[in-house]
Amino acid sequence: MRLALGLSYSGGAYQGWQSQPSGQTVQDRLEAALAAFTTQPVATLCAGRTDAGVHGLMQVVHFDTPLQREPFSWVRGTNAHLPADIAVQWAQQVPQDFHARASALARRYAYVVLESPVRPSVEAGRVGWTFRPLDGAAMQAAAQHLIGEHDFTSFRASACQALSPVKQLRRLDIQRRGSYWRFDFEANAFLHHMIRNLMGCLLQVGQGLQPPTWIAEVLAARDRNAAAPTFSPDGLYFLGPVYDARWGLPERTAAYDWLP
Q1: Res 99: pLDDT
Q2: Angle between helices 136-144 and 194-206 (to 10 degrees)
Q3: Mean pLDDT value across residues 45-69
Q4: At what angle do helices 194-206 and 214-221 cross, to 10 degrees?
Q5: Residues 124-161 as b or e (16 or more Cβ within 10 Å = b)
Q6: Burial of 170 (0-12, 13-18, 19+ CB in 10 A)
Q7: 112 contacts 94 by C-beta, under 8 angstroms
Q8: pLDDT of residue 160
Q9: What is the 3-state composition of the chain as percent helix, strand, coil, each rounded to the nearest 5?
């Protein structure tokens, strides 16, 4: 039987998603919890790996198991062995040809930034921060240069293992709620550190340090050195993959609702 799980987690205490020798990753904790619940080793595959400090609101994983359990049993049983900052939201049996990563049509992220003269306290680790005021219109104008299919080499980390730097950015929405800015990204796939590097550039435009057209110049340069420094992981959230409706998987969870 192939099972899919929807998972949410706060990434601050972990070295990212992917398993590491330290065991201090979200994948390591999930697989340990599944092994404790099923009393046998379980290997999972995820929809999109997240970096250290990045949060997940609907990470999707799949794995194969000979065990038959009700969906609520998988949720409650696994959660009983997980730390408080990781929780399975739902479980669902899927066809054998479903693959959490390969079946995804797109992936969605949100970045939340606090604009304030004083650094965050209660939200520390959960929002990015800028002490300079941001110009929303300038950032919107800059974002238009990024929409579509492009070579995003300028926004790619040196350790990126993607076979091609060409990705299709389908959506980049920017909205403000009080002192908080939310940036929503959707693409067929993302490069390593791509969103954090895009955020660094967008904020330089928003702060008036660069004009909106500078983004187009950075994109055309295909050179990481042309872009701004990589921004903090604190305010980055993996909202989840987009799948064809035929799989019948949930598109979102209640965990979205608290975001500004």
Answers
A1: 97
A2: 130
A3: 95
A4: 150
A5: eebbbbbeeebeeebbbebbebbeeebebbbbbbeebe
A6: middle
A7: no
A8: 86
A9: 25, 30, 45
